[in-house]
Write the structure tokens for this entry.
Amino acid sequence: MYTIELEDETALILNQLAMQQGKTVNEWIKGLAAQFVRIGNYSSKPQRPIGLAKDKGAPLPDAFFEPLPDELLAAFNGSES
């Protein structure tokens, strides 16, 4: 762990490089202490395939896709009529 003073873009780049290497960085910004720690890389997780559960559950009736009644739309929009 080390401390740098954030004054310019060079310090910011060095900070980002240090965090990519897994180091903890302490900074003083306008008299306030800040500590930056790399949490992890979540992009390596495999993505779930689209439509994984398309054949599971109850089918939706055709009425589900019809427009909502005017009274219900008015209630969602905050008017009473």
User: Anything to note?
Assistant: Helices lie at 9-20, 70-76. Strands lie at 2-5, 25-29, 32-36. The CA atoms of residues 17 and 64 lie 52 Å apart.
